[in-house]
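Quiz preparation item.
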């Protein structure tokens, strides 16, 4: 299973919506997809499930969520206890998030340091997310895993990111999003180097596999820019023009950067998603992706044209990601 994390420490860049829609799109294309909600705010879970289903799950004991899966580790009385996936759609399973995940932050922070000493439990705790995702993927027979994380640079995100083979950086055309790119690049590099050092210090007799922690950036996706008559609004264009250079400097750490970079031709730009405006509220109400909205969901008249455009945008984006991670095509 190929694993892809969507990561930017700037919030409001459409990260969770991106994971949700891509999970549906990959499933539409015949892939088996596991989406893991490793964000303590559980936003992906709240998009996927309505309040009645969420309340039902959270009233169950133990909760079939990521927090219950790692509870034995937190108590120091065992290893991960994988819970059942939630079936969202044919070929799309969810590792259900939980607000209680935030309580795991301090444990992960402490264990990261103890990995340097070769402590077995430290490695067991630090790799909890990775092993949970891999087991979920094996059980679901998934060929791709999508990882949603919160907008921060904390220990939970670090542990989630080492489970990723690849990283996509969601961005928005604004100053804060550009600043987020400047933070993400150096932090990914630091985490990758630190984890490689810890792998080299791990005990030889571990009874579980350590993730490689590749975290290879494969590009960025721009969301929520306005378009008028086929051209980006001028206020957004300023920041769109800066994204290619900042991404290459801070994330790719490129030594040579062309002077004439254009986001429309930038090979690291995986996609530019428009602000689909009224489609999103309909999608949230229908618990369906925007690109599969039907007239019965309220998508009538001109909305159907926007639905078709949205489908094409996400289909192209999924294809580009699939090529970058060398995901096998479905016959």
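Solution:
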């Amino acid at each position: 299973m190929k694993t892809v994390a969507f990561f930017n420490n700037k919030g409001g860049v459409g990260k969770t919506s991106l994971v949700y829609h891509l999970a549906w799109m990959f499933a539409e294309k015949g892939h088996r997809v596991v989406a893991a909600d490793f964000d303590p705010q559980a936003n992906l879970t709240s998009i996927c499930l309505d309040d009645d289903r969420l309340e039902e799950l959270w009233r169950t004991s133990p909760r079939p969520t990521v927090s219950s899966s790692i509870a034995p580790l937190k108590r120091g009385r065992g290893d991960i206890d994988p819970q059942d996936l939630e079936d969202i759609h044919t070929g799309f399973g969810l590792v259900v998030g939980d607000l209680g995940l935030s309580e795991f932050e301090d444990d992960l922070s402490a264990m990261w340091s103890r990995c340097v000493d070769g402590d077995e439990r430290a490695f067991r705790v630090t790799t909890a997310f990775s092993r949970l995702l891999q087991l979920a993927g094996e059980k679901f027979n998934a060929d791709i895993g999508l990882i949603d994380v919160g907008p921060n640079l904390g220990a939970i995100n670090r542990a989630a990111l080492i489970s990723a083979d690849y990283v996509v950086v969601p961005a928005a055309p604004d100053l804060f999003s550009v600043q987020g790119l400047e933070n993400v690049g150096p932090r990914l590099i630091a985490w990758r180097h630190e984890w490689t050092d810890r792998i080299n210090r791990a005990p030889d007799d571990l009874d579980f596999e350590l993730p490689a922690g590749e975290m290879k950036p494969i590009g960025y996706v721009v969301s929520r820019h306005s378009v008028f008559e086929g051209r980006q609004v001028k206020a957004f264009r300023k920041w769109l023009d800066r994204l290619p250079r900042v991404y290459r400097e801070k994330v790719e750490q490129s030594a040579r950067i062309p002077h004439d970079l254009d986001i429309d031709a930038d090979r690291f730009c995986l996609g530019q998603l428009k602000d689909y405006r009224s489609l999103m509220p309909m999608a949230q109400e229908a618990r369906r992706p925007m690109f599969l909205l039907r007239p019965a969901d309220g998508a009538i008249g001109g909305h159907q044209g926007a639905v078709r455009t949205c489908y094409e945008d996400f289909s192209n984006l999924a294809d580009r990601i699939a090529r970058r991670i060398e995901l096998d095509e479905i016959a």
